[in-house]
Amino acid sequence: MMNLLAAFVFLTIVAIIVFFTIFSGSNFIRAKYNGLHITLKHYLDVCMKNAKPKDVIDALILLKTNERSLSLTQLVDHSRKGGNLIAVVTAYVTALRNGKSANFDELSKIQLGGGDPFKAIK
Length: 122
Known about the structure:
- By secondary structure, this protein is an all-alpha fold.
- The protein has helices spanning 2-33, 40-48, 53-65, 72-80, 85-97, 104-112.
- The chain contains six helices and no strands.
- Helix 1 crosses helix 3 (53-65).
- The termini are far apart.
């Protein structure tokens, strides 16, 4: 009975390690290396919501580098809709850095509609 329990615990640990290796890959490690305070739970939520984890991590790194912030929900929603998240975040950060007003949600709608978010900055 104890051998069966030990085998179950061992296989569970191996399964968890394999799962994290396959699904988290280098994106989660890259996020931690760049100083992002993202938990594995949040990262797996991004993966499970059919968002592009690489784009979300890149956007978070870009925001952190420029000392800006957006909610993870906003980034995931745009990524799920198939938009170019990096272009929208770059336009948002550029506008704020240049002292112009920018709304991420409006830029996201423009980009998803086929427009250029850089031209929409006022």
